[in-house]
Here is the input.
Amino acid sequence: MKTEEIETLMRAVSSVVKDLKEQHDKALAALVDRIEAAEKHVAEPGRDGRDADHQTIRGIVRDEIESLPKPQDGRDALEIDVEHGINPRRSYKRGTFAAYRGGIIRAFRATDPILSHTEVEKSGWQVVLNGIDEDEETQRDGGRVIERITTYTNGTRVVRTSKRMVPIYRGVYKSGSSSESGDVVTYGGSLWICNASSPTKIPPGNDGSTWTLCVKRGRDARHDRLNGEAA
Here is the structure.
């Protein structure tokens, strides 16, 4: 997971924790109100808090705790409902989680329609999980050059290009032409393959580290034999 993805996920978690804290504060305020109401029933005002009816307060606290929903097999932990998809033309309320283009997004406000998948965040969505939307691969130069284009949830496109040694016959070698690793040429009647680490204009046969002889030229036929067969 990349650093920016972790930071985005942490911001989303912080936002959820903030919402839970607000709910906790409201519940705590309600508990304090009940405690204060119980203190009003005490016959005489307490002195420095020492004359409070501890049994009454303890009973109120116990009742509040028992009124809380009981956990159910761990399902009452933080539960996030993720929509299976969204309608880009619709508006969604704050806090909505949804699967979108191979990842997960969260509405940090009431969203606007998504006009382009490259403007997800401008529409009020936060990319929580930056997944892969599309992954395309094309080949050039006889399969020697491979280009892979990866498009992510937030619209980012990453282009990766790699080369591999694939033998490609280039015909008869021409003086001054540039050759790359894997190029196969005919030179002086023999077949040569280039194994240079970078493009080179060195002709075959002059540098053993640049070219490798694949097929050596055969011997020329004898003229007297040819003439005899012709007769």
User: Anything to note?
Assistant: The first helix runs from residue 3 to 39. Residues 132-163 form one domain. Helices lie at 3-39, 54-67, 223-230. DSSP finds three helices and eleven strands in the chain.
